[in-house]
Design brief:
The protein is of the alpha+beta class and about 300 residues long. It contains 6 helices and 20 strands. A hairpin with a 5-residue loop joins strand 6 and strand 7. Helix 1 packs across helix 5 and helix 5 packs parallel to helix 6. The radius of gyration is 18 Å and the shape is globular.
């Protein structure tokens, strides 16, 4: 099945990097995939397709843009929520250049989507099946897609900070897994990085309310971690959002090793440029159980703490 929202859902928050307030509204769409619409832009094309080939920057977050130079930054967390809950078509309206960071996870986007509800718009769905391994490497970072009969994701991180260290996680993302295992996991950074970025006029909206901040062996957030391996889980959340820019659900297994937004985007670009590495196939409703989907009630949304 293909799904969209049953009704519009709006949220207000602050951009992590710009520090600017923004309103984001997720609206139903019967077709067209996921599209971002800058409602504050009137002199140029305000619409940006949420696709890998529209990614224009991955330095600190994933930024998409169109031919008129209109951009939207930090799309990965809302894209992860849409993909993780099986929303295939929607218009994401935003009145500024950056998606608000909320609490640093996808949790508030998930709650808004589930509160709005979903409705089917088609009985079959086109998916991207991985046919051959594709891999990209950049220094110690790498990302790979391999054939699989469902969407699987694995990630490994390794940080010198004792609060993070080396963490590994693997998940099958079918029906409800994103909601239960990844949606509430927050972005993170090192205290020294925060101080350096803010001195350069970056991360202006960052705080302990929307990111985990570590200093050596210490987690500075008063509430601590939501999960002992929240760091690697958030990297998986980011990967789900970045892979959603493929434009359709992926049937395949992703593995990231110290990978960031740029590596995952280059992986998608290499995939679609490699003849014989992928194909588009149509799944009928009976076969869609291998894809991410809601499958749970709003009350099941994991609470922090």
């Amino acid at each position: 099945m293909q799904y969209t929202l049953s009704q519009a859902a709006s949220l207000v928050g602050t951009g992590l990097h710009s520090g600017r307030p923004a309103r984001i509204t997720l609206r139903p769409a019967a077709e067209g995939g996921i599209r971002f619409h800058r409602t504050d832009v009137s002199d140029r094309d305000p619409v940006i397709p949420a696709r890998f080939d529209h990614v224009v920057d991955t330095t600190l977050c994933t930024v998409i843009g169109n031919a008129d130079g209109v951009t939207v930054a930090t799309v990965e967390h809302v894209m992860a929520a849409l993909a993780g809950l099986g929303v295939h078509h929607a218009v994401v309206e935003i009145d500024g250049p950056e998606v608000p960071i909320m609490d640093g996870s996808s949790r508030r986007f998930v709650a808004a989507i589930m509160g709005a509800g979903l409705r089917p718009v088609a009985t079959s769905i086109e998916v991207i099946r991985i046919l051959a391994p594709i891999r990209v490497e950049e220094g110690e970072a790498s990302a790979e897609l391999r054939p699989a009969d469902r969407f699987e994701i694995a990630f490994t991180i390794d940080f010198a900070e004792a609060a993070i260290g080396r963490q590994e996680k693997a998940l099958d993302l079918a029906n409800g897994t994103f909601l239960h295992e990844l949606a509430d996991c927050r972005t993170f950074c090192r205290l020294g990085d925060v101080e350096m970025m803010q001195a350069r006029g970056l991360a202006l909206g960052g705080s302990l309310e929307n990111a985990i901040v570590v200093d050596g062996a210490t987690v500075l957030n008063p509430g601590g971690l939501r999960r002992s391996d929240e760091f690697v889980r958030h990297k998986m959340l980011d990967a789900v959002g970045d892979l959603a820019l493929a434009g359709a659900p992926i049937l395949g297994a992703y593995h990231g090793e110290r990978a960031g937004h740029g590596v995952t985007n280059r992986l998608l670009r290499k995939l679609f440029a490699t003849e014989g590495a992928w194909e588009r196939v149509t799944l009928e409703a009976a076969g869609s159980e291998v894809l991410p989907d809601v499958g749970v009630e709003l009350a099941a949304l994991r609470r922090a703490g």
